[in-house]
Amino acid sequence: MSLSVDLIEALKRALRAQGMTYRVLSQRLAISEAAVKRMFSRRAMTLVRLESICEVLGIGLQELSGDADRGREPMARLSEAQEQALVDEPALMLAMFLTINRWSQGEVLAHFDFDVPQWTGLLVRLDRLGIIELLPGNRARALTARNFRWRSDGPMERHFRAALLGDYFSTPFTSACDALFLLSGSLGPDGIAQMRSRLEDLAREFDGLLARDAGLSAEARTGVSLVLAQKPWTLQVFDRYRRLPFG
């Protein structure tokens, strides 16, 4: 199998991992859906087109090539055991964050209180957990999808609700990097579905920006976390005013 075919198969896996259809991809590329289907069915496209699709997906050619070599689907979610291991040891969670965000060993040692043996040990554990693939020179390749998500009501989400939520909202959102919008209202089923779709689009855009800026040095990047949520909810202090159901 030629390299070009391997790359296109890796592109298909990346599309599936991000839940992106040919129709959505065609809209992002400003070409017809038929043209996109033709490129993939014939397994032939120019390098320029390949790069443009990678840009839409928020992945680099080097990352795509690595996925093509592995020939398997990237993980869209971690297992319960993998998440629990990260929750149980903050240093391991930090190591995962740094490797996924492509920090080099030199950058890690310059900014965090690890020595080489400690950092190597964390990378080895992440490799054994199946979260990364450890490469020569303590380089790491993430085995997760670019837009992997934590498990619904899994160890990490429960840890966030119990221990991290208060920390996240403990300081005002007043700096140039901050944004906080407290919105509430009543929507019909179509409006709710549309808002959820927009939140998913925003999450994909965030993933793309992470990929775009991954080549910058650690000093040129700022760690940013988004909390995107939507649910039927009203303040509990309102409950005292509700009428009790008859019966």
Features of the shown structure:
Lambda_DNA-bd_dom_sf; 2 domains; 54% helix; Cro/C1-type_HTH; mainly alpha; Helix-turn-helix transcriptional regulator; 247 residues; 434 Repressor (Amino-terminal Domain)
Mean pLDDT: 84
Largest sheet: 2 strands, antiparallel
> In percent, how much strand structure appears in the residues?
under 5%
- Report the structural category: mainly alpha
Low-pLDDT stretches are none
- The beta-strand count equals 2
The separation of the N and C termini measures: 70 Å
Any idea how many domains? Answer: 2
Radius of gyration from CA coordinates: 21 Å
Strand order of the largest sheet: 1-2
Order of helices and strands: HHHHHHHHHEEHH
Verbal overview:
The protein has 247 residues and is mainly alpha-helical. The chain has two domains: 68 residues, 434 Repressor (Amino-terminal Domain) (Orthogonal Bundle), CATH 1.10.260.40; 171 residues, no CATH class. Helix content is 54%, strand content 3%. It has a two-stranded antiparallel sheet with strand order 1-2. A hairpin with a 3-residue loop joins strand 1 and strand 2. The longest helix has 25 residues. Pfam families: HTH_26. InterPro entries: Cro/C1-type_HTH (IPR001387), Lambda_DNA-bd_dom_sf (IPR010982). This is Helix-turn-helix transcriptional regulator.
Task: Briefly say what this structure is.
With 247 residues, the protein is mainly alpha-helical.
Map the helices and strands.
Blueprint: H1 3-17, H2 22-29, H3 33-42, H4 47-57, H5 61-70, H6 80-88, H7 90-100, H8 105-111, H9 116-129, E1 132-135, E2 139-142, H10 155-168, H11 189-213
